[in-house]
Amino acid sequence: MEEHLSVGRVAGLAGVTVRTLHHYDRIGLVQPSARTPAGYRAYAAGDVERLREVLAYRRLGFGLREIAELVDDPATDAVAHLHRLRGLLLEQRDRAAAMVTAIDKELETRAMGKRTTPEEQLKMFGAQLYETIGSAYPATRGTEPRIAARVWDALGDARTVLNVGAGTGSYEPPDRDVTAVEPSAVMRAQRPPDAAPCVAAAAEKLPFEDGSFDAAMAFSTVHHWRDPIAGLREMRRVARRVVVFTHDSSDSGWRQRFWLTRDYLPEITGLVAGRPSVDRLADAIGARREPVLIPWDCADGFLEAYWRRPEAYLEEHVRRAVSVWTRVGPRAEQRAVHRLRDDLSSGRWTERNRELLALDTAELGLRLLVAE
Ligand SMILES: C[S@@+](CC[C@H](N)C(=O)[O-])C[C@H]1O[C@@H](n2cnc3c(N)ncnc32)[C@H](O)[C@@H]1O
Questions:
Q1: What ligand 1 atom has the least distance to the C-alpha of 142?
Q2: pTM given for the model
Q3: Whose C-alpha lies nearest to ligand 1, atom 4?
Q4: 11 alpha-carbon distance from chain centroid
Q5: Where are the alpha helices (DSSP H) in 213-360?
Q6: CA 125 / ligand 1 centre spacing (Å)
Q7: Does residue 183's CB lie within 6 angstroms of at least one atom of ligand 1?
Q8: N or C end of the chain: which has fewer CB within 10 A?
Q9: CATH number among 3.20.20.70, 1.10.1660.10, 1.10.10.10, 3.40.50.20, domain 5-59
Q10: pLDDT of residue 124
């Protein structure tokens, strides 16, 4: 006969109160599958496994209703839960480690009787983000040759090029004299050995004289800058020509047009609130705006890349290489993934997005800003 544990024993092992277990039972979250002859709750191995999942999601900050949805999902077995929990915990650990480092630095600064600037205090949420998530970047991020060709074309005859927010250097033109700028040490460390020389600095304060470069470029980075307008003006100051690849996050440009942000990640609105519009960015440097269509098989896994391959967003490694998923937090992420998985298996996603399946490229609000 299968061995059962009493409610007191389970509570003791799990470090929760018997009242909590009674509550979980009443709301149907973890119901012991048996009773002792005297009528007491008795937990079988499967009940304990479910409780372990519930407690782990709870510790990650999920609400009881969300946890119920997660643990009741028939498509996720115990091993899949363990993988998902492991990923979420590692991410939380890395995020906490980055914050501890930042706090230690601030304590040191204060111990020396100095004050930290608002910029330093907020650093852990900006470029610091890439110190945390940067190591997951190369898994799916790289050069998309058709978009690279557009950027390189826009650089015109520039011989010297500054690449700001360069990351691992995916879009650096191979045939020009490139200097990279990248504030995150984790990203700098992942640049290939033969990549262009890289300076540790931020866009808002470029350590170069006026007019030092023929052109300056910034790819998929402006939305991370503390002050995008100041950064773009800096690029304009140090270079004759400026080329920026970014997205139009307005309702019509992106939020309502792209099914992922529209139907699954409404939290994105909070992330882009207060950010300058693509028109303001362009106007700040007198740039023209050119739409960039995304090929259906886009080789660089940025947020919009998988518009015709929705299953990709169910993959942990795909999401970890795109900062939005970390910035919305684990709850919104899991809810979005859960709903998308349901809609894919029920056919609802296809019903809603059927017209996309016939397209080879999509206009999803991505823009090239070119100032000459
Ligand atoms: C999505 S990655 C893009 C990297 C690279 N341009 C590419 O396309 O592969 C965004 C990069 O912007 C950098 N970044 C964040 N804040 C920045 C700032 N204030 N100035 C310059 N770069 C910044 C991050 O560290 C990160 O490497």
A1: 9
A2: 0.70
A3: 167
A4: 36
A5: 228-238, 259, 268-272, 278-285, 316-320, 323-327, 330-346, 348-353
A6: 13
A7: yes
A8: N
A9: 1.10.1660.10
A10: 60
